[in-house]
Amino acid sequence: MNHKQEIDWWRKSTVYQVYPKSFNDTTGRGTGDIRGLIGKLDYLQGLGIDIIWLQPVYVSPQNDNGYDVADYCRINPEFGTMDDFDELSAGARSRGMHLMLDIVVNHSSTEHPWFQESRKSKDNPYRDYYIWKDPAPGGGLPNNWQSKFGGTAWQYDETTGQYFLTLFDKTQADLNWENEKVREEVIKLMTFWAEKGVSGFRMDVINLISKNQDFPDDDGSISPGDGRKYYTDGPRVHEYIKLMHDRVFGRYGLVTVGEMSSTTMAHCIQYSNPEEREFSMTFNFHHLKVDYPNGQKWELMPYDFEALKVLFSEWQVGMRAGGGWNALFFNNHDQPRALSRFTHDGEYRTESAKLLATTLHGLQGTPYVFQGEEIGMPNPVWNDVSEFRDIESTNMYRILLEKGKSPEEAFHIICERSRDNSRTPMQWDDSDNAGFTTGTPWIKVDERYPEINVKAQLDDPNSVYNHYKKLIALRKKVQVIIDGAYERLDIGHPQVFAYARDNAKELLIVISNFSETDTVFTFEELFWSSKIDGKSSELLIGNAEHTPKLAQEIKLTPYASYMWVIR
Question: Looking at 204, 226, 351, 392, which residue is catalytic?
Fold first, then answer.
């Protein structure tokens, strides 16, 4: 089998992201578990899913919902047992699906035995597993780097009189990748899971593992001035990833996706070009910052539609030119629901959910569906700050109040921005707690679940669920979706995102009206006459009641979205 065939299968695949704590509870404890996922494998198979990305189910104090790992090779009893995991793995495989595990190795929990040893003394054998620094010459913090969750990135430890680095929560200590023993531990833990038969890994904030070893102060010359320029895509990061590929990914034929924080396209091309032997594909988040004023997540503004289109277009063209591969997504466990953020989650909720899906699934890359997205789950209705569970959100609410925001303003910002928007329980049916649990759910269920749930959509041919099912199937059948070159068609249109994909045999056209008013889209004369006019076109999928014929001028109703193929 040549290298191209080896890497090809996941290019036609669709990944489904499971946030296990909120997916399906079989115990009545109010939190989801592995057996809950086993019970829904037939559902995922029916949707057409190829890869299930299972978020962390390792032993963890759960300060950051499992991304604070205290033991990388044991299952958290809250989620079940290793036998449950083995049954899940076998069940997925028997249905032709692959299991992708989340690997979190930029940091571990401070409850991990390595860290517990590390903090005992400066000459402990595990001391160098983490990043310890003396106070600054005049006392105080080693530098001015900030945590992604707010506040300083340094925690003082009285036992040894030094600080340790925490780029995320104060209980998530950054591992020292300069230490060869740390790298060997990571190879060992990934090999453990590969030997268990998992098909791939999603690598959490993996481009932060190599830090500038001078640990300089950030002079603020590049926004946001929080230190990230000294640890993002750092000096040895590609070396470390190649090591993982050579020792694990390549050896076991794994599909891998790197989560890239504040990255550049040049790095993402290198991370995902097969010739580099690093990852299969990369996540970048630039398109999910188009509603951040001056890059500030915890300030609000209407999203910049033109910026969204420009970013998607630049990454489509640039990644293809460099031989890279995109992981395509609008939603994940760290983001508010795209439906509420970029479109309309009320009167046009169904049309909007289908529009987002069609727009994304026509692009080049591997699409990711986050649980509930396929039934059009919006941001939940929040009534009080006490309903939030996310540590980042509760920290920021306090910080916003300290900065002078009124309680009403701070609450409104948290409602719009909180990661908890995506973490409320999966809505299976219209029974109590949306069929998620017989107990008290760990986080509130959105009150609109009686109307928005899986059961109500399975047999409705016009449901959001069946729209996703059709898109997932099209990716396997229509070659131009995989290999067509991208061209943006809507230049300057304030309401429409339109693009073409062309592989010389087929032409794909996607046109989406991202507004709640009627509009018209007109193809430019040269494109229309040379590429479409006189050829046979087939509507692959659409979301409006009355489908227009493919013409040079197309009338679009609110949130209408269509995909045609021209042969």
Answer: 204
